[in-house]
Design brief:
Blueprint lengths: L5 E5 L12 H13 L4 E4 L11 H15 L5 E4 L5 H14 L3 E5 L8 H14 L4 E5 L1 H4 L5 H7 L5 E6 L4 H7 L8 E4 L5 H6 L4 E4 L6 H12 L3 H10 L1 H7 L6 H9 L16 H13 L5
Parallel strand pairs: 1-2, 1-8, 2-3, 3-4, 4-5, 5-6, 6-7, 7-8
Helix pairs in contact: 1-2, 3-4, 4-6, 9-10, 11-13, 12-13
């Protein structure tokens, strides 16, 4: 995990019509991703709707994914919580299951001062056997991981990176000073992949990769192979699709896109629900423009 470069899919959690987890579909999605050059798989992230799943379902999805991937690519498991104790328990559990890394979020709602934020991450990294990736997404959590906190935690031997999803390139550039062989940065925004790579990011943790895994991989691999022009061309080619995937809160549009493309990943759990018809039409038009659906 400390050297992974490329596109890591933030995988959706497919549901049956009755709302239960569709494990058969998870296996199909894993094989689709791996056969189309995905460099890693993240489950139980924002895109995976983990906030509406039970702890038992989280455990089952994590173990199922780890078992089915069977070491072919790294598996990252979202273990985050605004309760440090809950995050710690999940971190230890998923480490023992065989996760290659954990994704740990800043403590939403209750927030924290600088020292509390450091301890929130450090206690998990101290006790989990696999590495941790910090997750900065202030639009969701209401609290950013400050540059001071990143600087301190980048030195921790069991913290291997940060998923930077603030959309603030200035912030990302500032924390790029703390990148090293042992601490990587991953873009959390599909519309900024090439931009983030240009300031030292190792790759992307991607929503787009659910529907375009090969193309998302190619944006990153082209850049790392020195073909920056090709990376940018691909980034711009799929920009309208990316924007449509975020015209409503994630993962509503990406699951709708997958269903439009015949992947049959099912619906949502409240409070998430179907897209507004106008937004759905926009999404379908963007997919049609790329020949991805009828």
């Amino acid at each position: 995990m400390k050297t992974i470069k490329g596109s890591i899919v933030a995988m959706v959690t497919p549901f049956h019509e009755d709302g239960s987890v569709n494990y058969e579909k998870i296996e199909e999605m894993i094989e689709f991703q791996i056969s189309h050059s995905t460099d890693g798989i993240l489950v139980l992230g924002t895109t995976g709707e983990s906030t509406t799943m039970t702890h038992e379902e989280d455990d089952q999805v994590a173990q199922f994914t780890i078992d089915k991937v069977h070491g072919r690519v790294p598996v990252i498991v979202g273990a985050g919580s605004n309760s440090t104790q809950t995050q710690l328990e999940k971190s230890i559990k998923y480490s023992k299951m065989g996760a290659d890394a954990l994704l740990l979020i800043s403590p939403y709602y209750n927030k924290a001062n600088t020292e509390g934020m450091i301890r929130h991450f450090k206690v998990c990294a101290d006790q989990a056997s696999c590495p941790s990736i910090l997750y900065n997404i202030p639009g969701r959590t209401g609290c950013s991981i400050s540059e001071e906190v990143v600087k301190e935690l980048s030195k921790h031997p069991n913290i291997c990176g940060i998923k930077e999803a603030s959309g603030n390139i200035s912030y990302a550039t500032n924390i790029a000073r703390y990148l090293s062989d042992d601490f990587a940065m991953y873009s959390g925004n599909d519309d900024m992949i090439t931009s983030m790579l240009s300031i030292g990011a190792s790759g992307v943790i991607s929503v787009l990769s659910n529907i375009l895994p090969q193309q998302t991989h190619d944006i990153v691999s082209s850049f790392h192979q020195g073909n920056v022009k090709r990376s940018l061309e691909l980034q711009l080619q799929y920009l309208d699709v990316i924007h449509a995937l975020f015209c409503e809160v994630n993962p509503i549009p990406v699951k709708a896109a997958m269903n439009l493309m015949g992947m049959q990943v099912g619906g949502y759990r409240l409070p998430l629900c179907e897209m507004d018809p106008k937004n759905l039409a926009r999404l379908q038009a963007a997919l049609q423009e790329q020949g991805l659906c009828e």
